[in-house]
Amino acid sequence: NDLPQRLIANVMFYLSDAVTQLLEHKEEYTQFGVIRYLAEYFSSVKNSNHVLFREFNYVKATPHNRASFIRVFWRCYRQIGKSGDLLSMLEYRSLLQLLCPDFPVEMVQSASRIVLMDDAIDCLMSFSDFLYAFQLQFYYQEFLDSVLLIYQDLLAGKSPNTVIVPTSTSIEQLPSVAAEETDREQDGVDTPTLAQCVDALCDRFKHSFPPRACMRDILEQSDKVSYYSFLMSLAKHETVNQTIGVLPTKAELLIDPEMDQELDKLIAQISVSPGSNSSGSAVGGALKEVQRKASPRRNIHHRRRMEVESDGSTEETDSSEN
After folding, report:
1. Which residue windows does the record flag with biased composition (Acidic residues) (predicted)?
2. Most exposed residue of 102, 133, 201, 207, measured as fewest CB within 10 angstroms of its CB?
């Protein structure tokens, strides 16, 4: 069992990043205390705020980071789902890039294809449909990429015995392969054969993958299945959602009394401005609140300023923090 090794690797990853951040901002952190900084850093990791505004390589580096980013995305933009707005793939990409500036469009396209069954990714999608598809695609990216290559091999008529677990090079070639096979994909492949290959993949796969029981249950429902219908069923499966462990059920997705109370306060504050948009401002307010909590560096700096001001300083407060 390589679980202990993975846990150790993840801990070392966070320690390495904490030290890197410390060295990059050495003067500030040594002034306020290294121990205090480390406490802030690991507190933000524990509270899942550490991924906000970080680079994509950091956001995807560990399962906890991926789950944290999914949670942040849901919390920041839940109001969009509550308002019932339908957004395009490009609009969801823009929202994701507000949280992670270099978030790749390919990931957003893949999630959109799950929702739209690869028909036309320029169609509009509800927030909840996109969110659960995005959760599946982002959290299990490597596994889904591997399943897609297996699926393409089966479509091409290869025997299950000749299907090979994809390499990193072959995964990089996936977009062109998927595009070439779109027309043929509608018929799907035999589910018993795909189930056999997926089960064999799980035996030797080193990244996270959905519960085997869920995949078997889905593949037993019909004689043939297409790749995107398989993924859509996984995205909707509550056991998959519970396994990742960050999103509530679809029925409870938009229920958050504490957040509603905060948003009501924000809407009341901006209602005096005739040119403001309540829905957009509420989302922006939620994002600003998460931003306030996100960075250990910002928290230390902010508290230091509050301490100075409480001692009688006449220094003006930055309007962005009011």
Report:
1. 309-322
2. 102
